[in-house]
Amino acid sequence: MIRSESPFLVGIDLGTTNSAVAFVDTRRGGRVQMFRVPQLTAPGLVEPYPVLPSFLFFPDAHELESGALSTPWAPRPDAIVGVLARERGAAAPARHVASAKSWLAHPAVDRRAAILPWGETPGPKISPVDASARYLSHIRDSWNTAVASSDTACRLERQTIVLTVPASFDEAARELTLRAASDAGLTRVTLLEEPQAAFYAWIERHPDWRDNIIRERVNSALRWGREPVSLSLRKAVKGILALKPFCEALFLIASTLERLAPDCQALDRIYQVLLGVHIRRGYREGARQYDRGASESQLLTAQPRQT
After folding, report:
1. Measured between alpha carbons, how far is 117 from 290 in angstroms, rounded to an integer?
2. Residues 150, 240: one domain?
3. Do residues 135 and 223 share a domain?
4. Residues 30/204, Cβ–Cβ less than 8 Å
5. Does the structure show a pLDDT above 50 at 216?
6. Pairing assessment for the beta strands 223-224 and 160-165 based on DSSP bridges
7. Domain count, the chain
8. Does 175 lie in the same domain as 250?
9. Do 210 and 183 reside in the same domain of the chain?
10. What is the mean pLDDT of residues 165-193?
């Protein structure tokens, strides 16, 4: 279990297209809540929004001088993040940074170099690490303005934070993610793989999951040689479930259903199968996580279809 001595336990899904923040107020019980991220949604208008679009935009000098892009935490920003950054960037791609998370995992480029926006374009450049740090800095500053204005103990940099990363991230990408968090002033960070976060979200939505995991059994008196057919079938099924491509295919199907039909019964069935596979295979990290109890499993309830 992640033990938190901070007022909040915060989960951040730093997504390729959208980022989301969930939190638990440890002083008032364990209910998970979503943090609506304040951001520019139009010139001169700061509004809380369910997610933070993971886009960075470098405005022209005249836009900065007008003050229309100022926020309570950045009166004269050199770049903006979020809804307005996404909209402005669509019209000016040379000053628009997108998909920084994908570049962070790209082993064929120098991820610390100022390569974004990609291509031979004029204007400012930034590295994938710095872009990720900008997104996290925006989350930090908007949180501190909305939550910690009257209590410095509630500042985001003083909270226990869980940051999700794709299971496909190699060690270099994970280290660079931690570097981005550190550059944003967030040092109390634990990385959590997205598939595990999805399992925890499912468990949080199904508190009786232990009683409802379906165990299909084949009961047959037929025998093949010395071994009952039922035992042979169970061995074959276990072998199929142990195949990595099979599990990856189920994750892809589940991700699609989350977007198209989040309440369908088939989605719950797939999660039940994946959860059983996850436990049976006894992943070292997975086994430790499941032993840690409920408080961490309640952390991330952000809907995958939004990120």
Report:
1. 41
2. no
3. no
4. no
5. no
6. unpaired
7. 2
8. no
9. no
10. 94
